[in-house]
Amino acid sequence: MARRSQPGNLVTTTIDWAARWAQTQSMWPATFGLACCAIEMMATGTAHHDLARFGMEVFRASPRQADLMIVAGRVSQKMAPVLRQVYDQMPEPKWVISMGACASTGGMFNNYALVQGVDQVVPVDMYVPGCPPGPQSLMHGILTLQRQIMSGEKVTV
Amino acid sequence: MADRRLLETWVSGTEEPDAMPTDEGAQEMGVQESGYRFREQLGAVVTDDYLYEEEVSEDERMIINMGPQHPSTHGVLRLQLELEGEMIKRCRPVIGYLHTGMEKTAETLTYMQGPTNVTRMDYLAPLHNELVYSLATEQLLEVEVPPRAAAIRVLMTELNRVSSHLVALATNGMDIGAISMMMYGFRERELILAFFEKTTGLRMNHNYIRPGGVAADLPPGWRKDVKQILKTIPKRLVQYDDLLKENPIWLARTQGVGVITAEECRAYSITGPILRATGVDWDLRKVFPYSGIGQYEFDVPVGAHGDVYDRYRVRVEEIIQSLRIIEQVADMMPSGDFRVSDRKVTPPPRARIDESMEALIHHFKIFTEGFRAPPGETYAAIESPRGELGCYLVSDGGGKPWRCHIRAPSFYNLQALPVMLAESMVADTIATIASLDPVMGDVDR
Amino acid sequence: MPENPVLEPVMERFPDARWGVSDRETLVDVDRYQLADLATACRDAGFEMCVDITAVDFYRKRRTRFQVVVNLLSHQHRQRLRITTGVPANDPVVPSLSSVYPGAGFPEREVYDLFGITFEGHPDLTRILMPDDWEGHPLRKDYSVGSVPVRFKDSPQVV
Fold first, then answer.
1. Among residues B256, B252, B258, B176, which one has the least CA distance to residue B422?
2. Closest CA–CA distance from residue C106 to any residue of chain B (Å)
3. Fewer CB within 10 Å, N side or C side of chain A?
């Protein structure tokens, strides 16, 4: 969409495209580590796998500064209201990645204590399979989400 | 207890204090007369009645909630802190935000499927969970695993201890602000996880140690990988020491912080590095050896003061001792089968299934119905990176456990948090929680 | 009665308790009203750590439905002791050990939460793992696992 015009240092584009580009390239995840997947999420953020390559190593402790929530782990019935509250505190536009089998479907724990899929509580944009998903899977999920936002498939505003 | 801060707040440009305090004896200053807080807390479990004492005005007391979504509570721990200024007067941990109902799920799974379930409890030490469950099942069945299986178990669990302690050091560093430690810890952990992935197929939640042995033999070239780990990690430990051991900020944040005495530890059922940091020489690997770990030479590192710094030192020393065990296991690895030959527990080898119908039926039966354990109850315990990890199994003679209870070390360690935090600064909460190294999956199960 | 010099004074004080021994620990089954006294005696005999408290629901297996299990550990004598006590379903009350062992606070709350067994004398007996407004006690055998049927996209059952 961006087109470099011929003379001088002038770039023309649409506001829509520029906004999407900005949203994609500095997506700040909220730390919502719950269980095993949180450790893999931390491993993704640290030196070996280095999520900083994609401009999103800044895990924010406060949901008000984050635009991506990575639900990493199993969501219990006791935690579900907290999860929803944290989601509601995030400013628009916001996206949710459901990381791992437990967050996506309840996984192997089909019992009284767990919410069978976090999509019952918050809208989910991307499901990352695995138990737990490796850092590569998580990065693939994040990059796919970025691509979808860029192409205009996922815009919440 | 405000006087146990190591250095007075010193603002640049102001007069330098006459006698600069030294670090010498700083830890001793932190240790209270034995049993001081024990007496105060005994029988007075902190409640959230929120009734203020008469003499304290409401303006001076404040109750804040820390968690359950907080970056430094290691998961979904929630603390209710009652503060007077910067001092913590009372503290109440609220847990259960990760309750997964695993003990209920365990009753619906066969003994062979059990490790799949328990491995997800303490997700930093999954192999220890599998081991304790397998040991309990084997005690019920009264089978003895072959020496190679026992040696593989020791090798894998000790590697797991190293990786778990690395994460403990990493998160401990990160919480107090030493982000480099976080990067280092996770970097070295990848090395061990690569070996786990090669052996078990997964980075975490392996389901590798099963009743009757292990799931598969070690991969070809395992000895080279282990030697590589043994060569790399000691060098990196030197880096950590350079970074932290004499770092004045680290010392100020950890020495004399979160102190607990041996007497309090025993009263509050605390085990593992926290107990050893108080100077108690108690390690289940030495006292009640399991999986033939008694034949390897290693020492039990102990601290002296029971503070955050000593726990950090104990963990570093334990990594070194675990590496010693790993080296001996790698050298002494016996040959033979990696599963018991008892056909009741062990599925037939793959090649037999192709030629024998009975073997196929047998294989099918073991993986659908499972085997039956004789009625009874048993308790097995091992030394996990966090302390005594126990498994209490009750069998009614069926193919599934009637009751499976895991004695989770983090659960018990966490309940002493109010004792460690009483009358301390609110900033020390973070350092103390990190030094407990609680895994919320282990706490809530 | 098993040979055990450490526990001998305790055995003499509680002759009615059923003592046994396994490969790894000493076992004792007591009347539930004697539980706190027995635990105090054991603590004085050197079992300074209460390692674990849990319960088992023998629903339709035994006459007394519940069994509370207390695992004690002695550092100085390097011994384990397991105390069991039967608890009937119509009156699920046991004396609390939290005044003897402060470390019993959390596990007793857990047993109360998941089995509905009340510990008399516990200073703060509230739900610990489940939400406060939860109904029922999940680890009882008559409480269902609570699984929801898995629905596959192409399966004919999907409405």
1. B258
2. 7
3. C
Q: What is the arithmetic mean of pLDDT over B233-259?
A: 88
Q: Is the pLDDT of residue B406 over 90?
A: yes
Assign B5 a pLDDT band (cuts: 50, 70, 90): very low
Nearest-angstrom CA–CA distance, A4 and A22: 18
Interface touch B99/C49, C-beta < 8 Å? no
Q: Domains, chain B, ranges and CATH?
A: 4-94 (no CATH), 102-443 (1.10.645.10)
CA pair distance C38, C11, nearest whole angstrom:
9
Residue A62 has pLDDT above 80, yes or no: yes
Residue pair B213/B255 in contact by the 8 Å Cβ criterion: no
Q: What is the CA A75 to chain-centroid distance, rounded?
A: 16
Q: Per the CB < 8 Å rule, is C147 touching A111?
A: yes
Per residue in A8-38, pLDDT (tens digit) is 777 888 888 888 888 888 788 887 888 888 8
Tokens 């097995």, residue located: B380
Q: Is B255:B304 a contact under the CB 8 Å cutoff?
A: no
Q: Which residue has the tokens 């390559």?
A: A53
Note the ipTM here. Answer: 0.91
Q: Could you report how far apart the first and last alpha carbons of chain C are, in Å? A: 64
CA dist., res. B211 & res. B130, Å (int) = 9
- Cα distances (angstroms) measured from residue B1 to each of B32, B176, B250: 9, 21, 20
The secondary structure element, H or E, covering residue B164 is helix B147-176
Q: In which residue are the tokens 């020393």 written?
A: B317
User: Which superfamily is assigned to C8-120 in CATH?
Assistant: NADH:ubiquinone oxidoreductase Nqo5 subunit (3.30.460.80)
| Contact residues for B267 (Cβ-Cβ < 8 A; gap 6+) | B38, B42, C48, C49, C101, C102, C103
CA-closest candidate to residue B258, choices B94, B85, B416: B416
Give the model confidence (pLDDT) of B114-139 as tens digits: 999 999 988 899 999 999 999 999 99
Enumerate the residues of chain C whose CB falls inside 8 A of the CB of residue B388. Answer: 51
Contact B134, B401 (CB under 8 A): no
Task: Count how many residues are written for chain B.
Answer: 445
Residue B30's pLDDT is what?
45
> Distances from the Cα of B305 to the Cαs of A6, B37, B278, in angstroms?
72, 15, 5
Chains in touch with B (3+ beta-carbon pairs under 8 Å) read A, C
pLDDT tier for residue B338 given thresholds of 50, 70 and 90: confident
Contact C76, B280 (CB under 8 A): no
Spell out which residues of chain B touch residue C61, defining contact as CB-CB under 8 Å. Answer: 396, 402
Cβ–Cβ < 8 Å for C57, C139: yes
